[in-house]
Amino acid sequence: MSKRVGGWAVVAALTTLFSGPSLAQDDASLLRDLTATIALQGQPCGRVVTAVRQGDNDYVASCLDGHRYRVFINAQGRVVVEKQ
Questions:
Q1: Are 37 and 81 a contacting pair, CB within 8 Å?
Q2: What is the pLDDT of residues 45-81, one digit of tens each?
Q3: Which of 16, 30, 40, 79 has CA 20 to 30 A from 61's CA?
Q4: Given a cut of 80, is residue 24 above it in pLDDT?
Q5: How far, in Å, CA of 52 to CA of 41, rounded?
């Protein structure tokens, strides 16, 4: 029984260790995507440094220059960028 508990502890530790980098990569990709989306909408931003998910396809993005935008998909399926 002791070996099983120890084995599960190792599995849990390795899962935590290896899941961290993939989450960081997803975050970096999301920030790049939001930066591009805001730029394509003609809004000043520079680079998105943080994003908070509000819901499905709905984010509040904070830019390096201090601007904040809500980026979401409206009922018609269009991407909308609203200055906050």
A1: yes
A2: 989 999 999 989 999 999 999 999 999 999 999 999 9
A3: 16
A4: no
A5: 19
* Longest Cα separation, the chain: 62
Q: Are 79 and 67 in contact (CB under 8 A)?
A: no
- Under 8 Å between Cβ of 73 and 79: yes
Q: Is the pLDDT of residue 21 over 50?
A: no
| Domain spans of the chain, in order of start | 2-83
Q: Amino acid identity, residue 52?
A: V
More confident residue, 81 or 17: 81
DSSP the chain: -HHHHHHHHHHHHHHHHHHHHHHHHHHHHHHHHHHHHHHHTT---S-EEEEEEEETTEEEEEETTS-EEEEEE-TTS-EEEEE-
